[in-house]
Amino acid sequence: MIDEETGGFSALPERGVPAPRVLDEIAALRAADRPTHGGRLFAYVYDPAVPGLDELTAAAYAASAHVNGLDPTAFPSLLAMENALVGAAARLLGAGPGSTAPDAVGSVTSGGTESLILAVKTARDARPDSTAPRIVVPASGHAAFAKAAHYLRVALDVVPVSPETLRPDPAAVAAAIGPDTVLVACSAPSYAHGVVDPVTQIAAAAEAAGVRCHVDACFGGWTLPYLRRLGAPVPAFDFAVPGVTSISVDLHKYAYAPKGVSVLLHRDPALRAPQYFAYADWPGYTMINPTIASTRSGGPIAAAYATLRHLGDDGYLRLAARTREAVAALADAVRGVDGLRLMAEPESTVVCFTVTDPGLDLFVLVDELTVRGWHTQPQLTYAGLPASVHLTVTAAVAPRVAEFGPDLADAVGAARAAGPVALPPELVALAGSLAPDALTPELVAGLAAGLGLGGGEGDGAAAGSPVPERMAPVNALLNAAPPALRERLLVEFVGLLQRPSWA
């Protein structure tokens, strides 16, 4: 956005800009984003396609945007809404009066990553006797567990998953538990492939070892109970399972609340107690926080409360039924195209597929789907698992699902005609042998320029965008690199994109 007075884009112009113009500027910037509504984006956002819901949540957000969650005694409205959200999540996940977890408690967080970090922090702090705490996590566990381990200086013991079932072996999980293990994790379902881990067996192994067990249901915790009510064979995964001590569920996913709201639940108050941080040894106010953040806007919490109240239990059941139908239709579309294979039969709200034809480049296929208006999420090869395409399916997809099959077949044909990405052999060799520490800013800048990253106009990028329109060469290079080099390359690439505007 060009500022007429400064000649460039500036968040702090010399003189203030009228409100309508500011909103026009934001709308113009948003025009370059992926579509958040319309059922063609299969990642990042969750759209129920419920008329009027956006307006309701925007109004609720605005009504509480300036309320501060730092002190619940100062703003009891926010405390009441948080307690209501926690209660709704707990009941949905097998806790509350009359259940096997009648004393369950919880906290509202900013998202799944914060919930998982807090779950690890709570388990670590509950074991002050352990000088070298460790957590056991399946390879399919969300990357936020690794982030938590990194931030909290907890060792990460990764258990491989079967290439056939995409699940960890419970015996292998049990074998990984040691004297310093403070937490065992599992997923319901895993994000990458949408399959539910063997929670009952894993929780039993953790309980037998006297270790906490966290179920990461951030992705599916709000849909699996409804899918079960619709007749889907959903395995036990919640507080009804003995040994499950905590569960996380995101409300900004399939509860369809705006970003960012998650709930972290514990089976009882004693288990939650180490989650809190309190500090009084300074001259200011005594700090007491249940979450990582101190100051928290009430906007997201009020928006989530409004969403749950408006949709209701019956509304979520209808949305789950609509989503289930869309998942089945998308899976049928994949099965109907030669050269594609489902990574797993859909168990939740994910369709994940890979290619079986050597002449069909999965990353070119992803680009061809993007050209046709379908925004999917490519996943790179890992430990014997092939690269795949991930589709997070929401209720908004249902009205568009009939269009996907023909477009998928057409995209596959175009990808075959285009052929696989041909990276220079020396670049492939470099990606396979280069140590992450050997990357220099000059080398990364050269790679980025060659791949069309950070080039603004030209280099295949959309006008004004530092990202190329076709990402297949970038994904092919990352796919050729081992995970440690991928991480470093992505850090450097994103660092090139995230630079201050000095206008």
From TrEMBL:
Keyword check for Nucleotidyltransferase: no
InterPro entries named in the record: GrpII_AminoAcid_Decarb, PyrdxlP-dep_de-COase, PyrdxlP-dep_Trfase, PyrdxlP-dep_Trfase_major, PyrdxlP-dep_Trfase_small
BP GO annotations: carboxylic acid metabolic process
One family name in Pfam for this protein: Pyridoxal_deC
Keyword annotations from UniProtKB, A to Z: Lyase, Pyridoxal phosphate
Residues modified to N6-(pyridoxal phosphate)lysine: K253
Cofactor: pyridoxal 5'-phosphate
A GO molecular-function annotation: pyridoxal phosphate binding
Record has Lyase as a keyword: yes
Protein family: Belongs to the group II decarboxylase family. Sphingosine-1-phosphate lyase subfamily.
PANTHER family, A to Z: PTHR42735, SPHINGOSINE-1-PHOSPHATE LYASE 1
Protein name: Glutamate or tyrosine decarboxylase
Native source species: Micromonospora krabiensis
